[in-house]
Amino acid sequence: MKDTKIQWHPGFVAAMEMEFKEDRKNLEFESEHNLMEYKSPSDSLDIDTFYKVTGYACLYKSYGKTTDGNPYWK
Fold it and tell me: What tens digit of pLDDT does each residue of 35-67 get?
């Protein structure tokens, strides 16, 4: 079976824009560049969450065999 890449980013961003339409003027949507962590209604968004997501981004960026070698980051 051949691997098929599904372009789900545009649909996901469109769904996010619809979900956050009331706050659209205060938000910026990017279809390929941001890492995000799902937060349930009972979770909070605080400085610890910011550092956690930043840490995920840094670890993801470092996964590669050479400097700047992660093909998914580009």
Answer: 566 667 787 778 888 888 888 888 877 777 777
Q: Which of 37, 33, 32 is nearest to 9 (CA)?
A: 32
- At residue 2, φ and ψ (nearest 5 deg) are -80, 135
The DSSP H or E segment spanning 59 is helix 47-62
| Helix (H/G/I), strand (E/B), else coil: 31 | coil
CB within 8 Å of 53: residues ≥ 6 apart: 35, 36, 37
Give the Å distances, CA to CA, from 19 to 37, 44, 66.
16, 18, 39
